[in-house]
Amino acid sequence: MPDGPAHDDDRSTALTAIRAAIPLFVPAIPFGLVLGVAITDSAMPTAVAWSTNLAIFAGAAQLATVSLAATATWLTLVATAAVINLRHVMYSAAMAPRFSDQPRWFRWVGPFFLIDQLFALTSVRATMPTAHWRRFYLSAGIFYFVAWTTTVTVGMVVGSSIPTEWRLDVAPAIMFAGLVVLGLTNRPGVVAAVVGAAVCLLSLEVPNNGGILIGAVSGVIAGYLADVGESRRADRRAAAVGRR
Amino acid sequence: MNGVAAISAVVSVGMITYASRAGLIVFLADRPLPPNITRALRYVGPAVLSALTVNLIAGGDGVGGVELVEVAALATSIVVAALARNLIAALAVGMTTLWLLLWLL
Fold first, then answer.
1. Which chain A positions have a beta carbon within 8 Å of B59's beta carbon?
2. pTM of whole model > 0.90?
3. Shortest CA distance from A188: residue in chain B
4. What is the predicted ipTM?
5. Residue A228 and residue B104: Cα distance in Å, rounded?
């Protein structure tokens, strides 16, 4: 019989992973439903817009891709989604040491699943033994992938029966604004968000939705400068305390 | 957006997404990013998402595309998100505000 103790152990790791993954998925359900509605409303062919689940698997980038198809040029759309995904570089950097002793196939396959929730779930469990952690990561990752695609598809079915007077087209903007607010942890972050929004508002007349990128770049520069300024002030204060 | 443009856009965004997730894990393993880059990357999220919010509210029609009811709904949802730290509550209150205003005005 192949079902030895090792197999039981594998199965319990998978179950533990899924059980730990569920609470983090619940808040993403409305987002998935909103994305489903946006897919049915998208200027892209519906099947192509749905395929973002498989090809992109990143809520914010998917929502931007299907929503911008109506107004943006190809290049603006791709560039905006690319910038949205830059935060994944941070996750990639933070996770790299944990992947360094993993098999090569997993180094290539694992990152596909690296959404915000999986990062939150697995980065704090980095001290697990290598094989154990890999199983935990993959189980939770595949769970998120299946749960996400299902939720979005349900949103498409529900969304197509909701009348346009309900103005669900406004929901993506509210979703993005909420994500910004929940992601703000320090003052430079607030500076980045306010400058990003203000500059985008001022450059709305720039053709091809170029204002998104102009706003984003200005916001990042402003946030970076505010961060540098803040740590300089902290250094000076520390130095002043040291002299006393 | 026609089929070919849409497919190539989705595939491109997919490849860029994968590259940004896998790049450092596959190729850099243990070398850390320069601290200045890490510092700047931290602000990409708030900057681009808030710019995108403004753009979606305008809906491609410039400042003229901004509707007062949408701004009101957005403002209440931002307040709720800040106070309750809860995305579902923010969405629910924002949409309810929108429906109330559309019904009243």
1. 71
2. no
3. B43
4. 0.85
5. 47
Q: Which amino acid is at B13?
A: V
pLDDT in tens, A137-154: 999 999 999 999 999 999
Chain A residues in contact with B44 (beta carbon < 8 A): 83, 86-87, 216, 220
Cβ of A220 within 8 Å of Cβ of B47? The answer is yes
